[in-house]
Write a structure and sequence with these properties.
heterodimer, A: 107 residues, seven-stranded mixed beta sheet, 57% strand, B: seven-stranded mixed beta sheet, 11 strands, globular
Chain lengths: 107, 120
């Protein structure tokens, strides 16, 4: 099973700042099968990015994904108040696994 | 508008069984790969299992913690997905989300979730 590690565990930033979230896999992941989700308290997750870098429908262009192999990054160029949430990466390599999440909170 | 609406959650005793339903609308359900993801209270997301469309083979896959206890099925005539989990453990407690996998490998739409509590 491919294990995903996310860092940092918590990111404390101010609105307007840039957020860089990391997702590292225990073995190579096909870029076609790496996704990122945002989850707010009491809500279902929402997909932001799939195929490592493709934005999902309706997702603002301040969200971008990059990376390949074992290292992937989600970048939020300028944090808006509604972006403070928990972010998960997820891979599919025959089976699905999620990372433990990165919490982005207000500094 | 795509909608996934889960039902059937509640309190179940250890060793018992749970059956959840997910009513889908707004897309061609019969062509969809569907699945379940759960989240224990205060914890992260955990994939549970999925069922492919009949055209895609109709087969099911399940995560290791539920293998042998999980049955996922679908009724394409009623646009409904089902989850049955047997021999329940307290670790099975959590919110169960119905998902539409699109494209293959990631989850485009999620239901609002159904809470399941396994406790004596």
């Amino acid at each position: 099973e491919i294990v995903l590690t996310q860092s940092p565990g918590t990111l404390s930033l101010s609105p307007g700042e840039r957020a860089t979230l990391s997702c590292r896999a225990s073995q190579s992941v096909s870029s076609s099968y790496l996704a990122w989700y945002q989850q707010k308290p009491g809500q279902a997750p929402r997909r932001l990015i799939y195929g490592a870098s493709s934005r999902a429908t309706g997702i603002p262009d301040r969200f971008s994904g990059s990376g390949s192999g074992t290292d992937f990054t989600l970048t939020i160029s300028r944090l808006e108040p509604e972006d403070f949430a928990v972010y998960y990466c997820q891979q599919f390599g025959g089976s699905f696994t999620f990372g433990p999440g990165t919490r982005v909170d207000i500094k | 508008e795509v909608q996934l609406v889960e039902s059937g959650g509640g309190l179940v005793k250890p060793g018992g069984s749970l059956r959840l339903s997910c009513a889908a609308s707004g897309f061609t359900f019969s062509d969809a790969f569907m699945g379940w993801v759960r989240q224990a209270p205060g914890k992260g997301l955990e994939w549970v299992g999925r069922i492919k469309s009949k055209n895609g083979g109709g087969t099911t896959d399940s995560a290791a913690p539920v293998k042998g206890r999980l049955t996922i099925s679908r009724d394409d005539s009623k646009n409904t997905l089902f989850l049955q989990l047997d021999s329940l453990k307290t670790d099975d407690t959590g919110v169960y989300f119905c998902t539409w996998e699109r494209p293959v490998g990631s989850f485009d739409f999620w239901g609002q979730g159904a809470m399941v509590t396994v406790s004596s």
